[in-house]
Amino acid sequence: MRRVLPEPSCDATVESAYSAVLGEPPADRPWVLLCMVSSLDGSTVVDGASGALSSPNDSAVLLGLRRLADVVLVGAGTAAGEGYGPPATPGQRIAVVTRSGHVDVDSELFRSGAGLIVTTETTETTELAAAEAAGVDIVRAGREEVDLDVALRELRRRFGATVVQAEGGPALNGALAAADLIDELDLTTSPGIVGGRGPRLTRDGADVTSAFELVQLVVDDDQFLFQRWRRRR
Predict the structure, then answer these.
(1) Residues 6+ apart with CB under 8 A from 72
(2) Cα torsion for 171, 63, 185, 68, to the nearest 10°?
(3) Are the beta carbons of 183 and 22 closer than 8 angstroms?
(4) Against a cut of 0.70, is the pTM above it?
(5) How do residues 24-46 score in pLDDT, each as one tens digit?
(6) How many helices (H) and strands (E) does the chain have?
(7) Which of 58, 132, 191, 198 could form a Cys-Cys staple with 54, CB 3.0–4.6 A?
(8) Alpha helices in 10-125 (DSSP H)
(9) In sequence order, what E strands does the chain have?
C-alpha cells in the first residue's frame, strides 16, 4: 500500500493507517465514524450487497476500525441483509436501528447478548416485546422517527460508548448526515463502475452540506482508494 497523504510512504499498512480515530469525542456523545465502500460511480451495493465492491484490504480496514469502536451502529435492513452476528471484539455492542420495530430477536446477534435495539419512544411490536422479555437492551429516542442525537447520547450515558462506528445502510447514513453527527468518514473507493440503481452513500433526510477535510489517502496495488475524512467544525 502506498500512502499519498499526509506523509508519502511506499510501505503503508492497514494497521498503521487505521490505528486511531481522527479526533477526540465530544463531551456528551461518542465520536461517530462512518465506514463505507462505494464504486467509482457512487453505488454502495452490487446485487443488493456490498461484498462485490470490497477487497481483502477493505475488509481489513473495516475490521481494524471496528476494533476501535465501543458500539457498531447499523440499520436493521443492513444487519439482516449482511448477516450481522456477535462481534469479535470482547465487550463490543451492535446497535440495530429500527423505526418499524421489526427485528429478528432470535438471531445469534441478540441471543449472544451483544445486540441492542435503537428505536422510537412510540414503536411497539411483538418483536420488541419479545426483546424486552429476553432482556435485550433497548434505547428509545424520538417519537415518530429515531432521534439519533439523543440515541448517541444515551449510548454514551448508559453504555459508556466514546467511539461509535456506523456501517449503513444509506438511510441511516442520511439521517446521521442530516443531524450533522458524522465526525469521521472512512471511505473506500472500489476501482470500478457498476451501473444499476444501487443506493448512494446516503439516502433520504434533508438536503445538507457538510464540509470535510481529507486527512489521509492510501492506494493499494489493486487501485482501491482508502480515504479518511474529518468533519470541519
Answers:
(1) 66, 87, 92, 93, 94, 95, 164, 165, 166, 167
(2) 110
(3) yes
(4) yes
(5) 999 999 999 999 999 999 998 87
(6) 7, 10
(7) 58
(8) 14-17, 56-66, 76-81, 108-111
(9) 2-5, 31-39, 71-75, 93-97, 115-119, 138-140, 163-166, 184-190, 212-219, 225-231
Angle at 23 between CA 22 and CA 26, to 5 degrees: 140
- Residue 203 is which amino acid? R
- Indicate the SS3 state at residue 214: strand
> 18: which residues sit within 8 A by CB, 6+ positions away?
61, 64, 65, 68, 186, 228
Q: CB-based burial of residue 149 (10 Å sphere; 0-12 exposed, 13-18 middle, 19+ buried)?
A: middle
Query: Please, are residues 100 and 125 in contact by the beta-carbon 8 Å criterion?
Result: yes
DSSP assignment of 142-177, as one string? -SSS--HHHHHHHHHHHH--SEEEE---HHHHHHHH
Name 209's Cβ contacts closer than 8 Å, sequence gap at least 6: none
8 A C-beta contact, residue 205 and residue 211: no
Q: Which residue has the cell 477493505?
A: 58
